[in-house]
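Please decode residue identities from the backbone states below.
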């Protein structure tokens, strides 16, 4: 009778551990789904920003007296496969160039198509800030469960690793070199 109780207790303990592991694994999966959703939202806004800047090149060329390549970075980005981190930085640089043209050529401010693009770019900035915050909030929660005991045991077993924040850091930083999305 004593052996039966010991075996039953051991079986119940094993079942409880397996239920906990499954529950923790599912918690990780929910975070991964939310992270992917946030990345998709960021990607969507970045592509919208890219398209807007790309459209603006023709308008800038038409309404400015410059022979230089307008937003030539945008043309170069078309053929590159970049992460959202890199694309965000490149588009930010192109946006600074866009704003320089806006200041240098006042005639652009009278062009309805240019003004519309400028407004949409401004709106996209608010969107990207919100999506970055959402992404970083999820990453904070995810990294907490990857690092804290006992969920770190499940993370170790299933190879869940901490993720970097979307904070606009330079990808050449030492902490970021090994990161892959």
């Amino acid at each position: 009778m004593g052996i039966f109780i010991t075996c039953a207790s051991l079986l119940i303990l094993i079942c409880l551990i397996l239920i906990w592991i499954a529950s923790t694994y599912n918690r990780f999966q929910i975070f991964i789904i939310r992270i992917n959703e946030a990345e998709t939202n960021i990607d969507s806004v970045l592509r919208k920003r890219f398209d807007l800047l790309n459209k603006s090149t023709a308008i800038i060329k038409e309404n400015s007296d410059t022979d230089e390549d307008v937003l030539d970075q945008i043309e170069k980005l078309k053929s590159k496969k970049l992460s959202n981190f890199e694309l965000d930085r490149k588009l930010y640089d192109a946006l600074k160039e866009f704003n320089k043209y806006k200041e240098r050529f006042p005639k652009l401010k009278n062009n309805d198509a240019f003004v519309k693009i400028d407004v949409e770019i401004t709106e996209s900035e608010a969107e990207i800030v919100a999506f970055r915050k959402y992404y970083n909030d999820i990453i904070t929660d995810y990294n907490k469960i990857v690092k804290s005991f006992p969920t770190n045991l499940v993370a170790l077993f299933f190879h869940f690793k901490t993720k970097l924040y979307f904070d606009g850091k330079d990808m050449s930083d030492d902490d970021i070199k090994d990161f892959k999305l």
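Observation: The chain has one domain: 28-157.
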